[in-house]
C-alpha cells in the first residue's frame, strides 16, 4: 500500500507541474485587465476584460484557453476602424465564444456566435465577419450576449466605475 501511495504522489505532482506549465487556461502574459460594463435599456452587466491592443496580442487572442470566468472576456482595440468584411476566426481557440463588434463609442453594431475550429491549419477555419464598420471587438463565453439580453445599440462603458449605480 505504501508503494501505491508513493506512486500516486509522484503522479499527482507531475500532473500539477504539467498543468501549471501548459498555460492552456492562463491569460496572455502582461495584458492589462480593465473593468467595464455592458449597458442596455434593461440594465447593466459588469465584466473584466483583458485588453489586446497590439497586432501580436490580437493575433493570439484567446487561443489555447480551456475556460473563462462567466464575467471575463477580451477587448480587441484597433487604431483605425475595420470594415464590415473584416472578421475574426477561431484557429486554436478551444472554447465557443460570442463576439460583439463595437464602434469607437463602444456601441454594439453586431454580435456573432463563433465555434472552436478543429482544423490543423488556420486556412481550414471559417471567418466571422462583422457586417459593420468597427473599432473594437469583445469576445465573451458563448451565450453571454443572449443570456444578458445584449445586442445592437447597447454599449460597452469603461472606467473606474463603469456600471451605473442601481
Describe what this molecule looks like in 3D.
The structure is a single chain. This protein is of the alpha+beta class and 166 residues long. The chain has one domain: Jelly Rolls, CATH 2.60.120.1140. It is built from three helices and nine strands; from the N terminus they run αββαββββββαβ. It has a seven-stranded mixed sheet with strand order 6-5-8-3-2-1-9. A two-stranded antiparallel ribbon has the order 4-7. The chain is globular.
**Secondary structural class:** alpha+beta
Q: What is the C-alpha radius of gyration, as a whole number of Å?
A: 19 Å
Total strands: the figure is 9
Taken in chain order, the helices and strands follow as HEEHEEEEEEHE
And the CATH topology? Jelly Rolls
Query: Percent of residues in beta strands?
Result: 35-45%
Average predicted confidence as pLDDT: 85
Oligomeric state: single chain
Amino acid at each position: 500500500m505504501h508503494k501505491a501511495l508513493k506512486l500516486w504522489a509522484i503522479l499527482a505532482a507531475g500532473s500539477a507541474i504539467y498543468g501549471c506549465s501548459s498555460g492552456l487556461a492562463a491569460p496572455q502574459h502582461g495584458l492589462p485587465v480593465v473593468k467595464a460594463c455592458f449597458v442596455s435599456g434593461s440594465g447593466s452587466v459588469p465584466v473584466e476584460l483583458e485588453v489586446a491592443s497590439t497586432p501580436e496580442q490580437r493575433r493570439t487572442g484567446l487561443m489555447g484557453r480551456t475556460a473563462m470566468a462567466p464575467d471575463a472576456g477580451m477587448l480587441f482595440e484597433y487604431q483605425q476602424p475595420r470594415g464590415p468584411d473584416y472578421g475574426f476566426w477561431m484557429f486554436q481557440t478551444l472554447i465557443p465564444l460570442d463576439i460583439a463588434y463595437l464602434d469607437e463609442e463602444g456601441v454594439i453594431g453586431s454580435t456573432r456566435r463563433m465555434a472552436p475550429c478543429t482544423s490543423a491549419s488556420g486556412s481550414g477555419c471559417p471567418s466571422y465577419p462583422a457586417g459593420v464598420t468597427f473599432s473594437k471587438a469583445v469576445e465573451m463565453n458563448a451565450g453571454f450576449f443572449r443570456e444578458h439580453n445584449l445586442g445592437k445599440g447597447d454599449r460597452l462603458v469603461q472606467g473606474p466605475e463603469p456600471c451605473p449605480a442601481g
